[in-house]
Amino acid sequence: MAAVLSASVYRTLEALFRGPRLGTFQTNPGVGFMAANQCAAQLLGFIRLVCGLCPYINIASSILSVGGSGPFENAKSSDWAAMVDSFQKAALKSRLGIPLLYGIDAVHGNNNVYGYHFSHNIGLGATRDVDLIRRIGAATALEVRASGFIILLLRVLLDPRWGRSYESFGEDPEIVKMMTSMISGLQGQPPQGHPSGYPFLAGRQHVVACAKHFVGDGGTRNGINEGDTISSYDELEKIHMAPYLDCISQGVCTIMASYSSWNGTKLHNSHFLLTEILKDKLGFKGFIISDSEGLDRLSNPHGSNYQQSVLSAIRAGIDMVMVPFRFELFLKDLMHLVESGKVPMTRIDDAVERILRVKFVSGLFEHPLSDGSLLAAVSCELHKKLAREAVRKSLVLLKNGKDPKKPFLPLDRSAKRILVVGRHADDLGYQWMDKNLGWERWQNNHCSFPFSYVAKDDCVQAVASYLKPYVIGILT
Fold first, then answer.
1. Is Ribonucleoprotein a UniProt keyword of this protein (predicted)?
2. Three-state DSSP state, 321
3. Which residue from 120, 150, 178, 144 is spatially nearest to 254, judged by alpha carbons?
4. Which of 249, 358, 408, 412 sits at 20 to 30 Å (Cα–Cα) from 330?
5. DSSP SS3 for 2
6. pLDDT of residue 27
7. Rg of the chain over CA atoms, in angstroms?
8. Please, what's the b/e burial string for 281-319 (b: 16 or more CB within 10 A of its CB; e: otherwise)?
């Protein structure tokens, strides 16, 4: 079976791309159609760890470095760029030569290499500084440009018991909406008159952003991770969906579906929210990507009845599927569903069109390989100052002593002893939390970042210049 490159997909190519590559699509009979498996592969996102095992890697749509999985330990940005370029060159040698997107989690800076990290979202939300967030987005974009696209977290936190609460900008939807200025920093500011809902990327110093997780993962009952958000649609729209409207108006390229459920229905399985609301009502023209193994979670136990999970997710509106390990089964099941008519070819056309639209907008067809000139931006002095500004503005003093007339801060310079209370004071893992070189928090680990400082070190430096002799006490 061969699936003809549909008129709608071709119109996308024609409208978005001008130059030699379009002529190739027009005149070369070998590129007049996409075989069914190539269409299906455009819906497939791999993880880097399995790339050496996958026979379809040269026709894959995207690769994601989960948990910061890089080329090797202590890899530099130039090493990352070389790795990404090697995958890109393989994709360009395929019959159609469609470049791939390379994705990483970079939720508080380029956290995959040694460099300057920014405050986590909960701290950035405390700054209320829209321009600061935009500048952080622009700095992050420069540092990770070799990687393709990155992730932005847009949760509205309603229950602090949730273990990932620090990934939210806060509990106020208005504050979270303010923080969506990160999109303009990452992707660039769309010009006046840019069509609403269409993805936008300003140039090679910017990256494709992914807003996640749609929708309501910060409002699950009892703060349970991957839990169920119980609410009316009006509440969901007013509280949790509001920030996505701002992202869409700024041309966000991709949106990731949530593991969580809404009133008992998994988001990966919700045609109402993904297609009727996000795509149709809100007019989102980028692509919707699943979370890693999101399809496996549609069945109980996880991973059972996989073909049904593929069917329900694709029909619901998922355009690109992150499949870490079951890529052969995914392609086999998707091909069967298309050939049997259970998944209409129009649904595949829609997904491929959206994915290609983002790839063209991102400039991948013109400039598929990394730009070595941007390496100088990694850990530059300007970004160091920006990181310090973010930390300074994110600090929140809840109470400055018992008596307003006798504030605790600033500290009395005549003091001889300083007590730092709390086991977090000397633990880099607690202070940075996750989304660094790996996904999970690592405890008191200076090995990966040997020149980093913890709160105790900062206290020593802060008082050493004017308080001698001094004693720093750590009470855990």
1. no
2. strand
3. 150
4. 358
5. strand
6. 28
7. 24
8. ebebbbbbbbbbbbbbbbbeeebeebbebbbbbbbbbbb
Residue type, 366: E
Task: Work out the angle between the directed axes of helices 306-316 and 327-339 (0-180°, nearest 10).
Answer: 70
Region 416-444: mean pLDDT is 62
How is residue 43 written in tokens? Answer: 């819906």
Domain map of the chain by residue range? Answer: 2-377, 397-475
Instruction: List, in order, residues 6 or more apart from 132 with CB less than 8 Å away.
Output: 124, 389, 390, 393
Question: Alpha-carbon distance 19 to 344, whole Å?
Answer: 32
Indicate whether 89 pLDDT > 70: yes
Q: What is the DSSP string of 43-99?
A: TEEEEGGGGGG-TTGGG-SEEEEGGG--SSTT--HHHHHHHHHHHHHHHHTSSS---
Query: Measuring CA to CA, which residue among 249, 205, 184 is closest to residue 363?
Result: 205
Between CA 147 and CA 149 the distance in angstroms is 6
The rounded distance, in Å, linking the Cα atoms of 391 and 124 is 8
Residue range 16-30, pLDDT digits in tens = 444 434 333 332 333
List phi, psi (to 5°) of 263. 50, 45
Has residue 130 got a pLDDT over 70?
yes
* CATH code linked to domain 2-377: 3.20.20.300
Contacts of 12 (CB under 8 A, 6+ apart): 353, 356, 357, 360
Whose CA is closest to 451, among 467, 468, 428, 435? 428
Strands 2-3 and 34-35: antiparallel
